[in-house]
Each structure stands twice: as structure tokens, then as C-alpha cells.
Design a protein that fits this description.
Helix content is 37%, strand content 21%. By secondary structure, the chain is α+β, with helices and mostly antiparallel strands. An eight-stranded mixed sheet has the order 1-5-6-11-10-9-7-8, with helices on both faces. Strands 13-12-14-15-16 form a five-stranded mixed sheet, sandwiched between helices. The radius of gyration is 28 Å and the shape is elongated. The structure holds adenosine monophosphate.
């Protein structure tokens, strides 16, 4: 049996890579202008990191963690998993390297693969890629930073070419507000939950917020009838959220307040947001994020070295989803590979001269290649040049050992002219 890639993963083929690189370049450009530095964390971490931060009752931790086991002793390796998301790992690294001591505000970004044991479908993979940003520190507790963070995500999306997406925002308030909110939801749903599915009843018990974005229609009907609003927010929670919206207004970022948006993860407080795109079907979220004040201290294992609460906010955009949206909107970036010069050897005995000329051209920054068909006929070598979309072919003819028989052919016009070995790179560069 042929071995294929694991279900829910995909190879990114050379023809597709231009789209990926273009998206990454756009993101990197914005991260630079917004003052973010790249952080690369391992793709596997202690599973406890995610259990403690995302919460044991969340689907990601409960059902989707992909454990890493090696053939070494159980005790040594037990408890590792492939990272399902980036935030917890960034906070772990932030704490481990005492970034909070050095910096008032750390602005960090990452680009890389994440892993979740999901049921694969279009736009939902087991290995997918995220572009994420996190702003952490004593200076990260400011409503304008929430606005800036959302503007950054929106600007990356816009600049990558995606349109028809919508930013939805909400506020969960402080940790106390959030508790109040959960209690209010439980009270409101108490009499109605008996009619719902077993899964919904389980969610009611374990993490009542999950009911708000339940896919269950009966549950959605019940939720729709609730007058959720922003009632759970304390005065300071209200004031904070107003300033966030004001910031967005000032930046001209369009958004919609959605009281049903809660994001299921335990670590979120205050602002939460999600960006969805029409036309993507069931998996329509391009990205999401929110504020997670308190996570830095929580993951520091009670080692309270910080003089005051650390603020933190971040987002993650799904690269596959963005690329799917671009494709659906007819804006996918495709760049076919191309070559400046393909060097053809006129005779098998001229292989050495051909090989050296390719090297000489490359050392001069010219994209050059040759045929490795071991003395194939000129016709075959020209076919290879066509396949590689070479702009020019240089033919190494007899007498090349003495440095005088080189001809260049423009593959678009068919025009040919001789080249002098002493000036060959310069002559070609002038033609390119
Ligand atoms: P989340 O942390 O689940 O909110 O994920 C943030 C973003 O990553 C989502 O909005 C998606 O764009 C993307 N994403 C999450 N899970 C997957 C997945 N299994 N496959 C592809 N993209 C995903």
C-alpha cells in the first residue's frame, strides 16, 4: 500500500507556495509597521500548558489534543502534545524568558503550523497554519491596544486581498463580570435546557458559554430568545468596552457588536472578536482573538514576580481559510516558477564547461540551470528549458574550452547572438 499524507493534513505544493509566501510577506510587513517581533516556539509542548490555559472543558483540550509519544520511557515523555494554538505557548515563553521584566509592552507574532484532532472537512484540518499576534505586559492593558490589535488583523486581511469579511466584537468583562455572565446564562436557561440535546445539556453543566455558538438548531432558537446584551458588564467593564469601540471608530475599522460572541476558551476576558467571511460555508471564521488578562500570572505557577496585573491581547488568523477565501473570490496569487537562463551543452563532451558556466552565472546572481539528462540531445535540453520557462538559453558550443563559442537565444523572440566568456555574466544581466 502506498503511504499517503495523514488525513486532515496537506502538502503545500510548489505551484501553491507563491500564495502562501505572499500572505506571509503581507503579514510580516504589517507586523513590522505595528512594532511586532517574531517569536518561534516548539511545535510540541507539555499538554498541561493547554489544559491550564484553555480550560479542561474546552473541545480543543477535551477532544482534540494530539499527544506526542516516543519510544523512550513513558515517564520522560508522558504529557506532551502538538500545539493546538499559539497563545499559551507565547505566554509560556514570555514567562520563561522574563520578558515582563525587560519590557513594558512586548509585541510578538508567530507564523506556523497548529495541530488539532478534528474531523477533517473543507477548511478544517488536523494540521493548519496560523498567523498570530500577542501584545503582553504592564503596558498591554489599554483599550486602544484592543482597537489597534483588531485593526492590525483587519489590515492584514485587506492587504492580502480578501474582501467580504466581517469583524464581530463583544466584551466578556472582567473575570468577575464573566462569572456573573455565566451565572445569568445558567439561570435564564435553567427551565429550557431539558428540551435540548444531551450535548447541549452537558455544555450547560461544563461550559455554559459554549451554548451560545452551538450548531444545534433547537439550542440556537432558545439562545436567540434571550436578551443577552451587555448586562453582565460592570461600570468599568462598560467603560472599557466603550473606549475600545471608540478606538475602532477613530481608526475607521468597521465592526458589529454581537452579544452571542463569547469564544469558548477559559482565558478570555473583556474584548473578544471574530472575523468571518461570506462564501466559505460552515467553516467561515478567518480569524479570532481577544483579551486574556490574567493568563500570564496563571501560567507562571504562582511565582508572582510581577508588580501588577499583566494585560494581554492577541489574535490568530487561519492561513488555509484566508487562501480559500482568496481562491473563492478569484484573487489567489499564482506565480509560475521561471528561470533566467538554461544552459544547453552542444555536445556531451562539453558537460564540464556547461556545469562551470551555470556556476559562474549563479555566482553573479543569475537564476541558471542545466540539463542533468547525461548527454541528452539538444532538442530534449530545449524542451527542458521550455518546461522551466527559461527566458534565455545559452548554448555551449565546441571550442568553449578555449572560451569562444557561446550563443544566447531569447526564447520569446528566437533572436540569437554570440557571447564573450570574459563578459558573459555582464552581457546577460544587461539583457535581463
Ligand atoms: P481558534 O483559535 O480556533 O479561534 O482559531 C483561529 C483561526 O484559526 C480560526 O478562525 C480559523 O481561521 C483557523 N482554524 C482554527 N482551527 C482550524 C482548523 N482545524 N483547520 C483550519 N483552520 C483552523
Amino acid at each position: 500500500m502506498k503511504i499517503l499524507s495523514p488525513r486532515g493534513t496537506s502538502d503545500i505544493l510548489p505551484d501553491q507556495i507563491a500564495a502562501w509566501q505572499s500572505l506571509e510577506t503581507t503579514a510580516r510587513t504589517f507586523f513590522k509597521t505595528y512594532g511586532y517581533s517574531e517569536l518561534r516556539t516548539p511545535v510540541f509542548e507539555e499538554a498541561g500548558l493547554f489544559k491550564r490555559s484553555l480550560g479542561e472543558t474546552t473541545e480543543v483540550v477535551n477532544k482534540q489534543l494530539l499527544e506526542v509519544k516516543s519510544q523512550r520511557s513513558e515517564s520522560e515523555d508522558a504529557g506532551f502534545c502538538l500545539r493546538p494554538e499559539g497563545t499559551a505557548a507565547v505566554v509560556r515563553a514570555y514567562n520563561q524568558h522574563n520578558m515582563g521584566r525587560e519590557e513594558f509592552l512586548s509585541k510578538l507574532f508567530y507564523i506556523g503550523p497548529m495541530f488539532r484532532g478534528e474531523r477533517p472537512q473543507k477548511g478544517r484540518l488536523r494540521q493548519f497554519h496560523q498567523i498570530g499576534a500577542e501584545a503582553i505586559g504592564r503596558g498591554a492593558d489599554h483599550p486602544l491596544l484592543d482597537a489597534e490589535m483588531m485593526a492590525l488583523a483587519v489590515n492584514i486581511l485587506k492587504s492580502s486581498g480578501v474582501s467580504d469579511f466581517k469583524l464581530k466584537i463583544n466584551s466578556l468583562g472582567s473575570a468577575q463580570d464573566k462569572q456573573k455572565f455565566a451565572q445569568w446564562l445558567r439561570d435564564e436557561l435553567k427551565g429550557k435546557i431539558g428540551h435540548l440535546s444531551g450535548i447541549c445539556q452537558d455544555q450547560y453543566e461544563r461550559n455554559v458559554f459554549r451554548l451560545l455558538d452551538s450548531k444545534d438548531e433547537a439550542c440556537q432558537e432558545v439562545i436567540k430568545r434571550l436578551d443577552i446584551g451587555l448586562r453582565h458588564l460592570s461600570d468599568s467593564g462598560q467603560a472599557y468596552f466603550s473606549r475600545v469601540r471608540e478606538g475602532l471608530d477613530r481608526l475607521g475599522v468597521e465592526y458589529e457588536v454581537s452579544s452571542q460572541l463569547v469564544r469558548g476558551l477559559d482565558y478570555y476576558t473583556h474584548t473578544v472578536f471574530e472575523i468571518s467571511c461570506a462564501g466559505l460555508g460552515a467553516q467561515d471564521a478567518l480569524g479570532a482573538g481577544g483579551r486574556y488578562n490574567g493568563l500570564v500570572e496563571q501560567l507562571d505557577g504562582g511565582d508572582r514576580r510581577f508588580p501588577q496585573t499583566m494585560g494581554a491581547i492577541g489574535f490568530a488568523l487561519g492561513m488555509e481559510r484566508i487562501l480559500l477565501a482568496l481562491e473563492a473570490q478569484g484573487k489567489a496569487v499564482t506565480v509560475k516558477r521561471s528561470l533566467d537562463v538554461f544552459v544547453v551543452s552542444g555536445k556531451p563532451e562539453l558537460e564540464r564547461e556547461t556545469f562551470l558556466l551555470v556556476d559562474l552565472l549563479r555566482r553573479n546572481g543569475i537564476c541558471a540551470d542545466m540539463d542533468f539528462g547525461d548527454g541528452r540531445a539538444m532538442k530534449k535540453q530545449f524542451e527542458q528549458a521550455d518546461k522551466l520557462r527559461a527566458r534565455f538559453v545559452v548554448i555551449v558550443g565546441e571550442g568553449a574550452a578555449e572560451g569562444f563559442n557561446f550563443t544566447i537565444k531569447d526564447m520569446a523572440t528566437g533572436e540569437q547572438r554570440p557571447l564573450l566568456l570574459d563578459h558573459i555574466a555582464k552581457q546577460i544581466i544587461n539583457l535581463l
